Amino acid sequence: MRVTCNRSVLHEALQHVSRVVAGRTTLPILSNVLLEAQGGKLRIVAYDMEIGAQSKVPVETAEEGALTVPARVLGDVVASLPDATVEMAAEERSVLGLSCGRSQYTIHGLPAEEFPALPEVSDGSGFEVSQGKMRDLIRSTIFAASGDEARAILTGVLLIRGEEGVKMVATDSYRLAVKSAPAEEVKETGGDAEWRVIIPARALQEVNRMLAPGEERPPVRVQASEQQISFEVGEYTLVSRLIEGQFPNYARVIPEETDRSVEVAREDLLAAIKRAAIVARAEASKLVFRMQEGTLTISAESGDVGRAHEELAATVEGENIEIAFSAEYLTDVLGVMESDSVLWQFTGPLSSGLLKAADDPDYLYVVMPMQL
Amino acid sequence: MSRVFAHVRVHGLGASVEAREHSKRAGGKLPSAALGTGLANARADSVEARCCSAKAAQDRPVVLCDESGQRVVSASPAAQERGVRPGDSLWEAKRRCPEVLVAEADAEKYEYFWQRVVEICGDYTPRVREIREAGMGPYVRPRRTGMAVPKGPSHMPALQQRMAGVGTPALQLDLTGTERLFGPAKSVAQEIRNRLRAEVGVTASVGVGPNRMVARLACESARPGEVVEVKAEEAAEFAGRLAISALPGVDEAWAERLGDMGIRRGKDLAALPEEAVRRALGEWGRRLWEIARGGDPWEDGVGQETRSCPTDRRWEQGVFSVQLDLRPPTEERERIRAALRAVTEEIGRRLRQRGQAARQVKLALVFRDMRRVSARRTLGEPAGSAEVLFQAAGALFERVKLKGRLVRRVRVTVAQFAVGANGGQMGLPLVEEKARRERLAERVDQVKDRYGERAVARGSVLELVGR
Question: Which residues does chain B have within 8 Å of residue A169's beta carbon, measured at their own beta carbons?
């Protein structure tokens, strides 16, 4: 293998790919990235047997070939090189020679044949959606996924493809986030019209990093098979193993009817919750909300710290209510919403609260209260 | 039916075993336990061989030392007659008793003899509990209030003490309803004492009482080899007569403080109103008050069971542990998993009682050779459910390679507590199964509260810990 390429392009590609490299692994090869020169492209691959990332970089290929080198070493070296042309060549079967200007390095690697093949998801069902919309779908739901590995199903995000479009659902059993993309924003690319899969939240985090808003950016191409899903964005591809199992019936916990509601400015609410949460830290971030006569009151009390009291102007409908929520569960959702105001609906102090962005009918968030 | 308990305490097991072994070797006869009577155990031959190969010696005082080899942790009755006490320096012991023999502790051998002690007691009732050394477990005053933990060998965990042959390991026998079969409880106690002397070669004192605590206090008031019975109608008077320092958990500092309050004997404390005691001394004081009246604040509680010694002190340090000793030690993963189930259920119950949840789970396995492995895991969110704790501990256990080693103790510790079950956070009714499990756990708690800790148990746990 002998290739020449631009340092900044190579650096960007390595940054994208090397995030999925296994941190601690019993297989040393999984700490490496695969470099494969073929035609006018250098294929860079990282794979930890669950999530794999691939990037293709335009290069001048003098000699085709492949080898693997430690991702961290290569990434650090390339990051610190001056912005100039980089030449990479396989000096032996598994030693990479790298030169840039007057800098020369040799990096010891492992043979490419030992690197596991990245799964291909070629014959699955799929769709295309803009990067901006995919970013919305992920950002609006991923924070609600559970971090508890003991409940593997809930560490993933449910992706539902149906006639009405695409929907992502995440829950950690205390809160639920549902975000939809209507059918007109989704382009069919073949396979079944209706399917659902559970994607590890970690994989979606990596996908999210690949995305950028903007109409002119290429769309995200999603393809899913029984066990794998792939996301292609231009020259970047991410492949992830799917989580097997039955996602809970989330629809049953979305309140169908509510008799009390409050509409309040989102940024004001977020800022007030963040302030009050400082006092509530020692009390499991428990904030008490009182809605009455055009006012939303937020209070927190901690025996060791003190008290917090915030008042916000709000449009309150229905009977007065006093209810407690975790500050963390509210700041998460208010932080990703973009609307000016939010509508918060309740049925009682021990029932879930339904939070919606006032101008976004495609997003809803259900959160359970805390005991008063 | 009136209840009756016996508290059997074996004095200086290790040193007694060594002394009798040497003595009998010299006389040509070993205690029958050493000849393997009643124990069809594969280890018996090797242990017996080791017993017989010990250097013959005269019947002489014997002591066992700690790891440093400088401090006496167990003294045979012969050594004690010459003024040697556990806690003495070896230099001091030799000065008082120049002919004292310093024996090397043999954990496996003492375990063998201890199992024989347990078997003999088990001949009279299936309800035999091994309990911790005096001053340990729930009897220890919470550190926050200033009560110091007794110094000396009793600091060592019970199993470790027994393995080293030190301290005075004890058993509690529930003799309720056994009178028709074996006669009055006092006769049973005398018979057990005699059999332990003849068959195992150890000296035991036995207390008989209407509850576990009185039986224990009676045993503590007994001289080595003596049997003391306290009848139900005498319990209050008996406890009232005791010096306040004789009650569990009262060390010198607290005896002095209580003395300043005019409380020098049990009856002084018993005469005070319960609420006044609680206000002045807290929950620990209220328990002490109950003991001083001849009661048992841990009646059927878990604090005295073999499998579990949770203490308030551990809560205050921000952690909570429950452990279970496996007898015999095992490498069967199913048995170990059943033990994990038992301890996590108990932790779950305690967390529910306190309305708390824990974020961190730590598993420790102690092997037969006293080596140990441990691993910990931080949960994504605080959990109070026994099922979640079991899953977490089970996942840690799956990573442990036993490599043929026998596990003798399983301990699960939880830490990083949050307020309320799941931190006070209510859960979405997403999974009906989960909600059902939680309701079931609550009902089981209610049954246990009313009928005792072992009124309801999983089959696997029941097989492990007995009825």
Answer: none
Provide the residue type at B413 as one letter: T
Q: Chain A closest CA to B311's CA: distance in Å?
A: 25
Topology alike, domains A125-250 and A254-367: yes
Is B429 touching A (CB cutoff 8 A)?
yes
Question: Inter-chain contact A171–B422, Cβ cutoff 8 Å?
Answer: no
Tracing tokens 């400015």 back to the chain, one arrives at A265
From 3.10.150.10, 3.40.50.10490, 3.90.1150.10, 2.40.30.10, which CATH number describes the A2-114 domain?
3.10.150.10
Residue of B nearest to A284 (CA): B423
Decide if A284 and B429 are in contact by the 8 Å CB cutoff. no
For the domain made up of A254-367, give the CATH fold: DNA Polymerase III; Chain A, domain 2 (3.10.150)
Where does the pLDDT of residue A57 fall: very low under 50, low under 70, confident under 90, or very high at 90 and above? very high
DSSP A319: S
- Residue from the list B420, B424, B430 with its beta carbon closest to the beta carbon of A253: B430
Homologous superfamily of domain range A125-250: DNA Polymerase III, subunit A, domain 2 (3.10.150.10)
Q: B428 and A283 in contact by Cβ < 8 A?
A: no
**Identity of residue B139:** Y
Chain B CA closest to residue A250: B430
Within 8 A of A370 by CB-CB distance, chain B residues are 420, 423-426
- The alpha-carbon gap from A153 to the nearest alpha carbon of chain B, in Å, equals 12
A353 neighbourhood in chain B, CB within 8 Å: none
pLDDT score of B178:
87
**Is the ipTM reported for this complex over the cut 0.85?**
no
The predicted structure's pLDDT at residue B114: 81
Interface test mutation site (partner B, options A158, A171, A173, max chain B beta carbons within 10 A): A173
Residue of B209, B210, B296 lying closest to B247 (CA atoms) = B296
Residue of B nearest to A329 (CA): B425
- The verdict on a CB contact (< 8 Å) between A148 and B380 is yes
B433 touches chain A (CB under 8 A): no
Stretch A268-296: mean pLDDT: 90
Nearest CA in chain A to B392: A150
All residue ranges of chain B with pLDDT < 70 are 1, 23-59, 67-68, 107, 131-168, 298-317, 370, 419-423, 431-435, 452-454, 464-467
The answer to whether the Cβ–Cβ distance between B426 and A371 falls below 8 Å is yes
Measured CB to CB, residues of chain A less than 8 Å from chain B are 146-151, 171-176, 248-250, 252-253, 283-284, 286, 326, 350, 352, 366, 368-371
Please state whether beta strands B128-131 and A103-108 pair in parallel, antiparallel, or not at all (unpaired). Answer: unpaired
Q: Do A173 and B425 touch (CB under 8 A)?
A: no
Domain range annotation of chain A:
2-114, 125-250, 254-367
Q: What is the pTM of this model?
A: 0.56
